[in-house]
Automatic annotation (TrEMBL):
Annotated segments matching region Disordered: 1-29
Protein name: Tumor suppressor 2, mitochondrial calcium regulator
Organism: Nannospalax galili (Northern Israeli blind subterranean mole rat)
Pfam families with a match to the protein in the record: TUSC2
GO biological process: cell maturation; inflammatory response; natural killer cell differentiation; negative regulation of interleukin-17 production; neutrophil-mediated killing of gram-negative bacterium; phagocytosis; positive regulation of interleukin-10 production; regulation of mitochondrial membrane potential
Cellular component GO terms, alphabetical: mitochondrion
Native organism taxonomy: Eukaryota, Metazoa, Chordata, Craniata, Vertebrata
């Protein structure tokens, strides 16, 4: 969690053109901002899904199958986690949009 921020890639997309005290050096930050042609919105509209589809088309975080184990003549059911033949969910649209992790804002409620 948290590795999805833009700092991990080495750029700060929400920097001001005046160089206002970001984590990077002012000269490098200003050159980064000047090279951008468009402003970056502070919202995130999509995310990578954390769930998987199985062979039957069911969607879940984890899948288990029931296996029967015979021990000392007694049958016992045990759940085993399935790791194979799972398809990632892909990109999920967020409704409503979220504020980006690296957006420098303080949320205040009265």
């Amino acid at each position: 969690m948290g590795a999805s921020g833009s700092k991990a890639r080495g750029l700060w997309p929400f920097a001001s053109a005046t160089g206002g005290g970001g984590p990077e050096a002012a000269g490098a930050e200003q050159s980064l901002v000047r090279s951008r042609a468009r402003a970056v919105p502070p919202f995130v509209f999509t995310r990578r899904g954390s769930m998987f589809y199985d062979e039957d088309g069911d969607l879940a975080h984890e899948f288990y199958e029931e296996t029967i184990i015979t021990k000392n003549g007694q049958k016992r059911a045990k759940l085993r986690r399935v790791h194979k033949n799972l398809i990632p969910q892909g990109i999920v649209k967020l409704d409503p949009p979220r504020i980006h992790v690296d957006f420098p804002v303080i949320l205040y409620e009265v």
